[in-house]
Amino acid sequence: MLTRPFEARFCFTYRCNLKCHFCYERFARNLAQEELPLERWLQLIRELKQLAILKLTLIGGEPFCHPYMEHFLDELTNAPIRFDVGTNGTLLDDAWVRKLKQTARCASITLSLDGFKEYHDSIRGNGTFEAVLNAIQKLSDARIKTSVNVVASKDNYTTMPDFAQFLESLPIAAYTLYTRADQAHGENTLGGELNITELAHFIQIMDNLNLRKIDKNSTNLKLLDSLKNPPEVTDDGPQCLAPKATIGILPNGDVPVCSSYDNAEIVGNVKTRSIAEVWNNDITRDFIQQQIKGEPLPSQDCLDCIYRQFCRKSCPKLKKMPLCRRELAKELNLTSTD
User: Fold this and answer.
1) Beta bridge partners of 57
2) Exposure of 11 in the CB half-sphere (CA atoms within 13 A)
3) How is residue 116 annotated by DSSP?
4) Which residues of 255-266 are buried (b: 16+ CB within 10 A; e: fewer)?
5) DSSP string of 269-332?
6) How many whole angstroms separate alpha carbon 219 and alpha carbon 202?
7) Are 295 and 314 in contact (CB under 8 A)?
8) How far apart are CA 72 and CA 95, in angstroms?
9) Quick one: pLDDT band at residue 25, thresholds 50, 70, 90?
10) For the whole model, what pTM was predicted?
C-alpha cells in the first residue's frame, strides 16, 4: 500500500439540477446528509498540495450547481495540482468556462451525452442536449480538453453506431461508452441494463467501426479485448489500482475503501482527521490483501473456463453485478474453454 494517494476524487455534493431517473446517486446513503463546510474542503485541497497529489477529480451530483465550486476553482488556480470535472454540462456558461480557463490547472472536463436530442432530452430534461452541445463548443473555443461519457441501455444501445459517428464530428478529445451496470454504484440495478444477449449485440454492432476518438476503456472494447485476450490464471487474484492510489471523499467526509464505488465500506472520515491519517488504515490493507488472495470461483463448472481469472477479482461492485464471460463469449461465437 502506498504511503500516500497519488490522486483524489471529491464527490463533494449529491445536489443536482437534473433528476435523471437512472442516476446512481438516487441510491446514495442519504441525499440529505450533512456536507462538509467550505473551509474544511479548502483545507483538504491544501492537504493535497502538501501531499504532492498529482490530480484531483471534482464530481457530484452536479459540481456547477453548488456554491462551493467557485471557491474550489479559486483555491486550485495556479496550484501544483491538475484537476478534472465531471458534469452534466447544462450549467457551463461563458462565466464558468472563463473561470476554468483562468485556473490554468484544468486538465479536462467530462460531460454526459446519452444519445441524440430526442432520447437525451427524454431522460435528462428538455433542452439538455443543446445545452451540452453549447458547452462543448465553449470549452473547445477556450481550448479546454473535453470528453464525453455515454451510457448505453436497453432503449438506446442499438443507436450507438450512429451516435458514435456523431460524436466523432464534435470538437472533443474522446468519448467513452458505458452501460448502466457500469454506473450502478449503489444498487443491484438502475433499470435498463443490457442482458447477456443485448450486451453481445452491443459489442458486435460497435465492432470494426472506424472510430478515432472512442476511449479504449469503453465497455464494448474492454469486454471484447478481455474475451480475445484472457489473462493468465495465477495464484493471486486480479487487483485494482483504485484502493492503492486514489482517495475518494464523499459529501459528509466519509472515505470509501474504493474511490470509484460510493457504497463500498467506509474506512474513515476526514471531517476532523487528515487525509494522511485516514489513508493509512487497516480496512484498506485488508481489502488489498483480499484482492491478492482472490475470490473462490462461483462453481465447479468454472474450473475449465479460460476466463476464470476475472471471476476471482474481489470487488464489492462486481459482487452486485456479476458477468459470466463464458456466456458472453458463447453469444459472440468465441471459444471460451481450454
Assistant:
1) 9, 84
2) 25
3) S
4) bbbbbebbbbeb
5) E-SSS-HHHHHS-HHHHHHHHHHHH-PPPS-GGGTTBTTTTGGG---HHHHHS---HHHHHHHT
6) 10
7) yes
8) 15
9) low
10) 0.92
